[in-house]
Design a protein that fits this description.
Blueprint (H helix, E strand, L loop, with lengths): L2 E6 L4 E6 L7 E7 L3 E9 L8 H15 L3 E4 L2 H9 L17
Parallel strand pairs: 4-5
Antiparallel strand pairs: 1-2, 2-3, 3-4
Length: 102
């Protein structure tokens, strides 16, 4: 099974297709600014669950975020959990600056 992941900026999501299928087998919705990309929702078609589609989405989206020098905000539970299990991507996570009191 071959999973191909592409950014679909007009839909604001990464889409995964299996074996060249016309319909996405899964997607990762995002909100993007010049400095940050927030992954807000990931969905995989039940027929393709457990076959690496979600992992392919996460890996491709995060690799492209790294290349674009974007910080990542993983509000989607799937992305947050995936990054927890793949520490080599933790450096991408957005860290809010703490407010300094006077």
């Amino acid at each position: 099974m071959a999973v191909e992941v592409n950014d679909a900026p007009e839909a604001k999501r990464y889409e995964a297709r299996v074996d060249g299928g016309a319909e996405p087998a899964g997607f990762a919705q995002y909100i993007r600014t010049a400095e940050l990309i927030a992954f807000v929702h990931t969905e995989v078609d039940p027929a393709h669950e457990g076959r690496g589609v979600g992992s392919a989405l996460a890996r491709t989206a995060l690799d492209e975020s790294r290349e674009a020098k974007l910080r990542v905000l993983a509000t989607c539970p799937f992305f947050a959990g995936w990054i927890d299990r793949h520490p080599e991507y933790r450096d991408l996570l957005y860290q809010a600056r703490s407010k300094v009191s006077d």
